[in-house]
Amino acid sequence: MKYIIAIVQPSRLEAVKDALSKVEVFRLTVSDVQGIGRQKGHTEVYRGHEYQVNLIRKVKLEIAVNEQFVEPTIEAILKGGRTGDEGKIGDGKIFVLPLEEVVRIRTGERGSEAI
Amino acid sequence: MFRLQGRSSSRVLAAAALIGFVLVGGWLMAQAPAAPAAPAAPAVEPPKIDPGHTAWMLTATALVLFMTPGLALFYAGMVRTKNVLGTMAHSVFAMGLITIQWVLFGYTIAFGPDTAGGLFGDLGAYLGLSGVDHDKPMPGSVHLFPHLVFCAYQLMFAIITPALITGAFAERVKFGAYCLFMLLWATLVYDPLAHWVWGGGLLANNVAPTPQSWLQNTVGAGALDFAGGTVVHISSGVSALVFILLTGKRKGYPSQRILPNNLGYTVLGAGILWFGWFGFNGGSATASDGLAGLAFTVTHICAASAAVAWAVVEWIHRGKASVLGIASGIVAGLVCITPAAGFVGPISALIMGFIVSPICYYFVAVLKAKLGYDDSLDAFGVHGIGGTVGALCTGIFCQKRYNSGGADGLIMNEWTQFKAQFVAVVVTWVFAGAVTFILVKLLDATIGLRVKPEEEESGLDVSQHGEVGYNL
User: Fold this and answer.
1) Which of B374, B148, B135, B159 lies closest to B246, judged by CA?
2) What's B26's DSSP letter?
3) Which of A47, B220, B336, B385 has the smallest count of CB within 10 Å of its CB?
4) Partner residue facing A48 (CB), from B257, B260, B369
């Protein structure tokens, strides 16, 4: 079992969810985050003071998957998450972590069945 | 009941004025009011209330009150999330507390018949609003609407003025200490100043048979302040500056990012202020007539041109016209036209907008950062400076053809009024500044004005009110 964390552009979230559902990945957690990557920020001016804003808003997806779903999930996120055909700096990253245990709260099931 | 001596001396004054009016009466029948709020002016004293004038003054009163929640929005949008409710509380609670003060003794200090050589009104005259008729106009005035309505109208001005000051010390003052400061400031600064300019006191533009004011005797003219450039804006703006110079900056200013939580509120607030200002300036004509129409219209014109001017200046200076800048320009224009509204023409108002915005912009966006003082929401930069510019512009652009009770200004080659305006401005600066200095020193030494550092960190909403503004 693996735990996939993906940081994607907020504008690509719907496309990523569509691509994931096409490979039968429906269950995930989404949160609003801010991050610094290689994307440059912007300058805001407020009452004569300039502020450099380099924390950019992104969306984090967290998905627990069984082994056979790892590659399809990664492919789906790549397909949905790229901006345009070539992609752009700021499109994000995918992290694959080993997942030790999964438990369904309602039934107490563990392991692959619980994902 | 109340001091009989005070009451009888004001009755003698009213009786003398009445006789004078009846003698002068006939040929003044069709005139507009000579001075907006002077308690004694030459005209026929109206025998009864006119529904048209009363309707307008009631409407104007409601419009001015609406400006205070508008101000609450304007300011609250500019502070950090953790202080949004605390900032609104400053404005909204003033609506409650100042009303009580005004009803009990504020009104009589400001508009009671002149005693103490022009310093304040007769305390005994209208204490607790006794003697303020609901079915007769104010004695000694040319009003054609009830005295009580005039009192209510002026109350709305008294409410918003201390609320304006709060913009300077946003995000760092204890609520209880603020309430005490508000009460003392209203009683010791606003009420006397209102008396001086509008109540027939030191700076007033008195007309016979009322004796000439100190300013009229000294310079040759009284101050022309149609709706409160000096009384409201300079006084609050300068007091705001003194307050924050004495109490210090916010923690983390200016090195840390202190960002507005919801500029949408600020824009909405500016719109409400514009709308309400029609009552602020239009109602200061104290009649439903051409003068009210003039004040109403030039108010709009100046707000508009000042908004455009601010945007242009910021565009040139920064490359982009911010929406906060446009909102600020609107308010600066409204402030600037306030003393001038019933004395200047439409093109003068247009020009004034283009004068006030660059000046206020300079104070707000350049000088403040350079000098490093923390006038958090620019109460001084917009109201203090804008009011000063407006009061002086009144002396430049006023023309008698718009208001025979006014004067001709510099554009008509007359210097006297400008000199009077200048003196009035200086007096207001010095008086408001000095009394506020004493008040702040006193309160800071006794109860303390600032919140504790950890309270400033957690925010006013939670520390002062036990509330959270947003539960999104």
Assistant:
1) B374
2) G
3) B220
4) B369
